[in-house]
Amino acid sequence: MEQPPPKSALPLGRLEAFSDGVFAIAITLLVLELHVEPGSEAHLLHSILHEWPSYLAYFTSFLTIGVVWIEHSAITGSLRSADGGLYRLNLLVLLLVGFLPFPTKLVAEFVGDREPERVAVIFYGITLLALSFALTAFVRYAAQDRALVHEHVDSQELEAAMSLSPSGFYVVGILLAFVLPTVAVAAYLASAVYRGLPARTLHRLLWRRD
Amino acid sequence: MEQPPPKSALPLGRLEAFSDGVFAIAITLLVLELHVEPGSEAHLLHSILHEWPSYLAYFTSFLTIGVVWIEHSAITGSLRSADGGLYRLNLLVLLLVGFLPFPTKLVAEFVGDREPERVAVIFYGITLLALSFALTAFVRYAAQDRALVHEHVDSQELEAAMSLSPSGFYVVGILLAFVLPTVAVAAYLASAVYRGLPARTLHRLLWRRD
Amino acid sequence: MEQPPPKSALPLGRLEAFSDGVFAIAITLLVLELHVEPGSEAHLLHSILHEWPSYLAYFTSFLTIGVVWIEHSAITGSLRSADGGLYRLNLLVLLLVGFLPFPTKLVAEFVGDREPERVAVIFYGITLLALSFALTAFVRYAAQDRALVHEHVDSQELEAAMSLSPSGFYVVGILLAFVLPTVAVAAYLASAVYRGLPARTLHRLLWRRD
Amino acid sequence: MEQPPPKSALPLGRLEAFSDGVFAIAITLLVLELHVEPGSEAHLLHSILHEWPSYLAYFTSFLTIGVVWIEHSAITGSLRSADGGLYRLNLLVLLLVGFLPFPTKLVAEFVGDREPERVAVIFYGITLLALSFALTAFVRYAAQDRALVHEHVDSQELEAAMSLSPSGFYVVGILLAFVLPTVAVAAYLASAVYRGLPARTLHRLLWRRD
Predict the structure, then answer these.
(1) Do residues A185 and A56 make contact, with C-beta atoms less than 8 angstroms apart?
(2) pLDDT in tens, D139-191
């Protein structure tokens, strides 16, 4: 039988509720950056299509936040308690999730505009890379404290789950952005899609239904 | 007696909490697009009334998101567990809910402006149609996995519940938008009202209190 | 012993969670309308103080939404179940809560500007009055269905609780706005303060700790 | 054995859910103020770096709201019930949390701009000080009513926990802002970092895992 968590541990449910709020808001605020140029009445369809970099950036950030939320949800779902350290690392994850709409806006604005495009896409990639590191730190911290993890979860497996982390992807994407910025955004998008695939280690670990 | 859900299934409560967040934010962000033209001090009442396309678009999107939320709530209320596939389909529903403020803004801006009006209303209709498809996929996926559904719910009935889906309405609306865009928006609104009626199959199924 | 609610009743918790989201977002979005005029570097303190109508409108709307949330929370806290009708009336309450930032913005913009000021304050008052009616309808609907109310709550008392509703206040405020708009905003604010007082019937009913 | 809370006490969970919403939204809305000047295509990297006051303000406010949320979470985690007074004091805390993005925006806009900078930073400091007072009032109110506090929590310790409150920090910061505004912002930031340290009294009290 599972032991109760220590009496004065921090409530895990509250951490989840606050995190759900920040993830949900960040993912929904992205839409505020979508718009068409003033004066586009005459050719609205053309103007809508012309905004493709906005949709690419919107979709990449939406999918990234969505997948990070799924991973976050899978991680906390395997925990039974939280402590102050976990609260702080969670705040770091949320800081980067909440910051993401800013580089997303820059990418939406400057893709297709040779010089600034490169800066925007590298800045975006660095933010994604930092978010990936923060999430890895979050899961490692949790996995190393047996008292935080549900008894039926193998904490070594939990720690290993993020080791196939997407950080490598983002490093490649950042390097790619120096020469082919738009392709780099496509690589960030591909990374989010890959992380969302059912076959990924993290998912196999946490979502199997045996 | 109802069997417990499989141990490593994903938490349904977290999916609901995150979805509630996205629905609540998308439905509340709509208000940010309401404003009066600069320089309308002299005739503020006139300016407020002049913005009727904004209110029509606001109200249509508010009601649509509200009704989709009620349906989403009724669906997950009939489930007892979630899995990775359901999480992904839910993300697709949320992607479209979160995107809706953008075409809403275009409709608010361009209704009454012959040529772009048509493009805006068709774009809006396509988004609503895609949302309707995503919700249908969500309920079908859930209904086909007996392990996800509460034992007292008939999963065939659950699947059938969405078969009188509003997709047909939206197809008609989109076609109508080619000739009578404003009437098409009224049709989208009527669709949301119709979906909110107590007599609808989904509601009969899930809200009966026997 | 309290009987369980009927099996397929709608989940009350989900209604609360979604409502909390909309209330929280509407109350927090209000801050987006606070700003100082461009070009106010030279006299920033003066510019900040000059924006007093914005703070008055912000504070009035914040307090109103806050008090309505407390009342909403007290009402649903006395229920044990929800049904489709309650979901719909709740959506009406949320529609008006979510709409409130728009007239708030108009009041903030036009108070001090004789003619439009009057229109803005009347429009604001009508929205507040409609919100008050919606909340009254919400509590009456709940009180009239014994199956929705907790057994330890007297449903007649619950229904009576809102009968000293603030609607009268708002009618007076709207009439006042025709001659003294700024005073009318102060009356709306006073109404929110009054509704927040511990001695109010609704509060006595629901918050007594016997 | 712990006694049940009085029957008609207000639900603590609902207070937490609403608060989580407001905290999450306020912390995420901050990103909307981050942007680069129009016409910065030519030197985007330079423009991004040039916005350092925005990042300083963003980070300070993010960390402050985050730490206040952790403290709020620790406080309500030590309670077992809420009443009307706690609901009202909580609304005061949320009023200030929700207001914080406005002075943050002013700091981001005017730091580096000698005269208005001083006004903006003092205004920001006063808001932070008021928030600190509100939180202290919140914890004191809770601590003085034995019926609200979990039996395993020493309410005197709870009350003492906030006595090393950051209010002093903010008073110093406000005074400092008269002569060295940018340094004062750094002091506000340091205060948030200090409050986030594990060794702080509040944390020792509430997060020990014995």
Answers:
(1) yes
(2) 888 888 888 888 877 777 777 666 556 788 889 999 999 999 989 999 999 88
A21 touches D at CB < 8 Å: yes
Each residue's pLDDT tens digit, B48-91: 888 888 899 999 999 999 989 988 988 888 888 888 888 889 99
Query: Residue D4: which pLDDT band, with cuts at 50, 70 and 90?
Result: very low
- CA D39, CA D44: separation in Å to the nearest integer? 9
At CB < 8 A and 24+ separation, what contacts does B148-151 make?
B148/B79, B148/B80, B148/B81, B148/B82, B148/B83, B148/B86, B149/B78, B149/B79, B149/B80, B150/B2, B150/B78, B150/B79, B150/B80, B151/B2, B151/B3, B151/B80
- Block residue for tokens 């930032």: C101
- B158: Cα within 13 Å, side-chain hemisphere: 27
Among candidates C9, C11, C26 on the partner chain, residue whose Cβ is nearest the Cβ of B73: C11
Contact yes or no for D51/A51 (Cβ under 8 A): no
Q: How far apart, in whole angstroms, are the C-alpha atoms of residue A21 and residue A25?
A: 6
Sort A182 into a burial class: Cβ within 10 Å, 0-12 / 13-18 / 19+. middle
Asked if D134 and D198 count as a contact pair (C-beta separation under 8 A), the reply is: no
* Cβ–Cβ under 8 Å, residues C188 and D74: no
- The ipTM of this complex is 0.83
Q: Report CB contact under 8 Å: B6, A209.
A: yes
Q: Tell me how far the alpha carbon of residue B95 is from its chain's centroid.
A: 11
Using the Cβ of C6 and the Cβ atoms of chain B, whether some distance falls under 8 Å is answered with: yes
Q: Which two tokens stand for residue B45?
A: 């009442």
Interface of B with A in 56-85 (CB under 8 A): 83-85
Closest residue in B to A205 (Cα–Cα): B8
Interchain CB contact of C159 with D (< 8 Å): no
Q: Are B69 and B23 in contact (CB under 8 A)?
A: yes
C-alpha B109/C-alpha A39 separation (Å) is 11
H-only helix segments in chain B: 12-29, 44-50, 52-77, 84-99, 101-110, 114-143, 155-161, 167-179, 181-196, 201-207
As a whole number of angstroms, the distance between CA C167 and CA C159 comes to: 15
Q: Which of residues 100-119 of C touch B (CB under 8 A)?
A: 101-102, 105-106, 110, 113, 115-116, 119
Residue type at position D178: F
pLDDT in tens, B34-57: 988 777 667 888 888 888 888 999
The span from the CA of C170 to the CA of C127, in Å, is 9
